[in-house]
Amino acid sequence: MKLNIAICDDNSTHLKLAEDLVTSCLDQEHNSYLIQLFSSAEELLSEIDKDHYSPDIAVLDIELDGEDGISLAKRMNQLVPMCRIIFLTAYIDYAPDAYEAEHIWFVVKKTADRYFPSAMKKALQSLENSPAAVPSIIVREDGKSIAVPVSQILYISKVSRKSLISCKDTEYHDTRRPALLIPEELREQFIHCHQGYWVNISMIRELDHDVLVLENGIRIPISRTHKDEVRDRFFDYFQAKRSSFSHES
Fold first, then answer.
1. Is the pTM of this model over 0.70?
2. DSSP secondary structure string, 119-162?
3. How confident is the prediction along the chain (249 residues), in pLDDT tens digits per residue?
4. Which residues lie closer than 8 Å to 209 by C-beta, 6 or more apart?
5. Taking the CA atoms of the chain, what radius of gyration do you get in angstroms?
6. How far is CA 7 from CA 62, 79, 116, in A?
7. Smallest Cα–Cα separation from 134: which of 145, 153, 150, 156?
8. How many other C-beta atoms lie within 10 A of the C-beta of residue 16?
């Protein structure tokens, strides 16, 4: 299988250096690959939109003219969720912000010779192990199919016979009901708390009697039918999360 690699950097010298890094790594792996170079986020997004370009791995600078690399990565998470993203930047200060988007690795350019091969190896392994880099729900809206990362979804509600997908920064609509919209492998990520509501469990801040309070303060009702199940799943989830945090500490 031929790998499609996208590299985006608005500095022509850095763009060539990134290409050399990728070529060096992939030549050692004996992979068949095609590298495409982009000097702006707009250029890369246009290729994805107009020509249905779907890179397997993207190497992105973070400081770009017109649009920063983190915003570009978030758009790519939606448009090409199977793409593995590696940030390659001159600025370590961007590291915390990079986690706003799903990515494989954050590599600083001055240490790229040392760390970039590990990032590329991880990206290749991820491609072998999973069809998508980002757990997503495919939403059909206005004739387009949009991969909406689960990490961005607050809740899904039933409106008539359709679905409203409420996200952190926007919302989508789909003609399918939520029960048909959420794939089987992602069901555990959502709590069905009411006849018309499926809430992303990772977005819940607290359980307040018969209401789930989300991170942004939205309050979602819990029906009497689902009350026991919601309480059990809420406490199981946060107990497991607390336990995981204790082990990491």
1. no
2. HHHHHHHHHHH-S-SS-EEEEEETTEEEEEEGGGEEEEEEETTE
3. 689 999 999 999 999 999 999 999 998 776 789 999 999 999 999 999 887 788 999 999 988 876 778 889 888 887 887 889 999 988 665 555 555 556 668 888 888 999 999 999 988 888 887 656 667 888 888 887 787 888 889 999 998 888 999 998 899 999 998 888 888 888 999 999 998 999 999 999 999 989 999 999 999 999 999 999 999 999 988 887 665 444 444
4. none
5. 20
6. 12, 16, 13
7. 150
8. 13
> Do 138 and 145 contact (CB within 8 A), yes or no?
yes
Q: Is 11 left (phi over 0), alpha (psi -120 to 50) or beta?
A: beta
Is-contact 210 222, C-beta < 8 A?
A: yes
* Residue showing tokens 């912000």: 97
The token duo for 72 is: 């570009």
